[in-house]
Write a structure and sequence with these properties.
The protein contains 7 helices and 16 strands. By secondary structure, it is α/β, with parallel strands linked by helices. The chain has a single domain, classed as Rossmann fold (3-Layer(aba) Sandwich). Strands 5-4-3-6-9-15-16 form a 7-stranded mixed beta sheet, sandwiched between helices. Strand 15 and strand 16 form a beta hairpin. Helix 1 packs antiparallel against helix 3. InterPro entries: NagB/RpiA_transferase-like, Ribose5P_isomerase_type_A.
Length: 279
């Protein structure tokens, strides 16, 4: 008797005759995915595993889903496309956090909405640039931090998916700068004032395929504040100071909002960590 595992279920040759059409379609897509995954690097395989594990455990039919941005989220969209087209998931409504994520969702044939039409979300799933032992995240490497934070705030639950290289004890071990979205009018002043008030250095993020700065989906600039490593910091206080600074729209610090993190490793294992939030 032969068996195969997919969608966290074990199917034997004796039960293939009784699976539904949706399960059969999902199985076929899973097998194709297993074959194609052999072409991925270990890091990309880990990203995919984190996205798929989180989606399997937390997305059900009828879900109003906030979809983050970045390379790991692309595998979440891949999962959704397969699950919806096979019939495994139905009536999924997606609210994207960036132009590129919206394009991925539309290309996948998924239902896309916005916060005007869908102001309350069941779940938001997003990647991160770094997550420390207190579940504080640095996000915004793709320049989508303001919309990511808005969509996260609209969701009942927030889950982070990442490969194990994003896991740290303290912020700065792997990623030592905080993206900050700023009004263009304030950029020059903030580039001078941030190092004085917070230490470190601040640089305007420049585009690679245009002559000028990166422009966010909100038509703002991104300033990357590089902080000094190996220095104890009160990130809540820093977030409060930055949020109260004129000209700063939002920071890439996500503090006290993560419900679970899914870290995936090159060997295929996934570690699920749940934050203990204060009542």
């Amino acid at each position: 008797m032969h068996s195969i595992r997919f969608a966290n279920s074990l199917y034997t040759s004796e039960c293939f005759s009784s699976i539904t059409v949706a399960q059969a379609r999902f199985l076929a897509a899973s097998i194709r995915r297993m074959v194609s995954s052999t072409e991925l690097s270990p890091i990309e395989k880990a990203k995919r595993q984190a996205a798929y594990t989180c989606a399997e455990k937390n997305i059900a039919s009828g879900c109003r889903l906030g979809v983050g941005s970045g390379s790991t989220v692309k595998y979440l969209v891949e999962y959704l496309e397969t699950a919806v087209k096979s019939g495994k998931l139905q009536n999924i409504v997606c609210v994207p956090t960036s132009f590129l994520t919206k394009k991925w969702l539309l290309d996948a044939g998924l239902t896309v909405s916005d916060l005007d039409a869908t102001p309350e979300l069941d779940v938001c799933i997003d990647g991160a640039d770094e997550v420390d032992a207190h579940f504080t995240c640095i996000k915004g490497g793709g320049g989508c931090l303001a919309r990511e934070k808005i969509v996260q705030h609209a969701a009942k639950k927030f889950f982070v998916i990442a490969d194990s290289s994003k896991e740290s004890v303290n912020l700065g071990e792997h990623y030592n700068h905080v993206p900050i979205e700023v009004l263009p009018f304030a950029a020059s002043c903030l580039l001078r004032s941030l190092p004085r008030t917070e230490g470190g250095t601040a640089q305007m993020r420049m585009a690679t395929k245009k002559c000028g700065p990166v422009i966010t989906d909100n038509n703002n600039y991104v300033v990357d504040w590089a902080f000094e490593k190996n220095k104890p910091r009160d990130w809540k206080e820093i977030q409060l100071r930055l949020a109260n600074t004129p000209g700063i729209v939002e920071t890439g610090l996500f503090i006290g909002v993560v419900d679970k993190v899914y870290f995936a490793y090159p060997d295929g294992s996934v570690k699920e960590l749940e934050a203990k939030k204060k009542p």
